[in-house]
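We keep the chain:
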Amino acid sequence: MTGRGAPLVQEPVTLEERQGLAKQCTTALKLDKLPTLIDEIEDGVAKAYAAWPDRLYLVGKDGQLAYVGGPGPAGFKPDELESAIKKALEPPPPPTPKNSPAPLHRP
């Protein structure tokens, strides 16, 4: 299907079709060196995260969501995501000693 406002590809009906489309997309956008995750055909992840039409998320090293963008297109803010990525990549603060003596207080 083609034309203004029409999808460029048919909606995949099998996981294999979805994987093929994802491969075509990542190759065409020269993103094939980045890990690509593909939702199951039932769209469980998209439904759970309200990802339609687009949404940006950052999963931290601890597996927790470090950034949750607003629903798109108005909530699609790559600059905010970039800031969150930079913050996530900052080195952690040094640990505080557990058994350090209490500070002295002078009267």
User: Anything to note?
Assistant: Strands lie at 57-59, 65-68. Residues 10-48 form one domain. The chain has a mean pLDDT of 85.
